[in-house]
Amino acid sequence: MAVARVPAEGEFDEGLAIGRGLDGPNDDMRVHAVRARFLVSFVVLGLVIVNQLIFLTVIDAAEPGSIWTDIA
After folding, report:
1. Keyword set for this entry (predicted)?
2. Phi/psi at 53 (nearest 5 deg)?
3. Distance between CA atoms of 23 and 12, rounded to whole angstroms?
4. What is the arithmetic mean of pLDDT over 21-48?
5. Is there a smaller number of Cβ atoms within 10 Å at the N or the C end of the chain?
């Protein structure tokens, strides 16, 4: 069974750092992946809001007794 080596005080082990995602070529891709997830989340949220606005103004307004026909 392998035991993880703990670096001494003030020692920086690049192998441990890369394994923990602190330094290395994959960090940029992780940052892009997180940004892409946030972008997709905001786009989906925007589409849901637009969908609800269209439903409230177009579809619901055509029904008798709707709040929009009562205002008009």
Report:
1. Membrane, Transmembrane, Transmembrane helix
2. -65, -40
3. 11
4. 80
5. N
